[in-house]
Amino acid sequence: MLRCSNNEWGTMLTGAEYKASLDDGRKTYFEGEKIDDLVGHPLLGQTADITAKAYDNFYDPAPDAISPLLSVPQSADDLRELIPMLHHAGMMAHVTSSSIQTLKTAAGRMDGVKPDYIERIGHYIDEAQRGDVRITQCITDAKGDRSKKPSDQDDLDSYTRVVDRQRDGVVIRGAKLHITGASFGHDLLTIPTKAMKPGEEDWSIGCIVPVNAEGVKIINTTYAPRHDDVRTFPVSGNYHYPEGFVIFDDVFVPHERVFLDGETSMAAVFAHSLGLWERLGGLSALVEECDQLVGFAQLVAESNGTAGISHIKEKISEMIIHATLVRASLEAAIMNCSIGPDGAAFPNELFVNAGKFHAAANYNLMVRHLHDIAGGAVLTAPAPSDFENAEVGDLARKYMSTGKGVDGEYRANLMHAIRDLTADAYGGWKFVTNLQAGGGLYAQRIVTRRHYDMDNAKRKALDIAGMSEDDVG
After folding, report:
1. Crossing angle (nearest 10°) for helices 425-436 and 440-451
2. Which of 184, 197, 222 is CA-nearest to residue 51?
3. Global pTM?
């Protein structure tokens, strides 16, 4: 059941109320221990702080106010306005928005299946908006042996499934992996990870599960630095979200929170709908990341005294071109959006998938250029505390400097930021998630090909060859 810490529907939450809402009996674990106080935990509590600040930043005390972070875009302008807002608000806002947009998208594609599902989805979205909750998406299953379908697995729980259907709901069992921020939301949007076939009805389940529901257990991992002085981690030391390994250990879900149960032909609708919005989020994040990498490349080249060297300029120019093309893909996805039957706007699938693929597939090249330009000091620059040491501080500053106007500590701090962003725990997390978020590169290839106008391309090829479709065969 949806919760609101101030017990008033239609009133947005403050940051303090959000933190209080996490004390609801949820079972969450970290490095072998059960965490009873998420907010007070030295590492995980920082995520609660980040999320709470976003609540305060967007708080509106007006009666019946609804957070813009939970709004449904109605036009290209709405989409363009929502994206930077979500980036500013952080990961929990992003996963919540994409959950709501996923449900809207799926509902628009489920005509003729079961009217109850569409009605339930609409009712849930309304309650989520009025309750100002945070939602995370649970899609990727444990999967077991990847060469086998769900019904052929040695352990049938390898894909989340219904194990009991009762008069007033269903009982589900399974696990969902790689769920960013799972312990810090209120509800888990749980949907099939892929298309299902006849005979796989039990695995065709889509529903909303409260994080504190009986039988839900979440194991957390995090790239957050384990250092007392996080100044050498200027990115991840201030902004990090754990990944959740979500376990459904015979969890009861009432019918009003079930949006799919056994309709195998509709299982892929949810996965594809989520994929669209996750890839839009990934593409928009990569737009910002590409600009950041270009900025670091130029700054470190200037601090190294190499900004005028031809091969350095060439690398940075290549990075600029990549960043510009990624941004153009995002703009094309927004400008060519479509409007659903209920007025909701959806980004263009072709440009979202092609842009996300291009950005993620070439991310490593951008990082390679940055590391080549920066040099080995990315890994070996002295820590800020070293510059404060009475014996070696001035010497570290002297030898990290590259000439007049380039302070040695400034140059070291640049190197720390580059390392944290691209060559440490957070950098590794970012490299993998850029590839895997939204289903991985292969999924984006499939969707791009599906939405590309191949017939038109073939007609153009035949035309320039002086032939027509009548000449084929």
Report:
1. 30
2. 184
3. 0.89
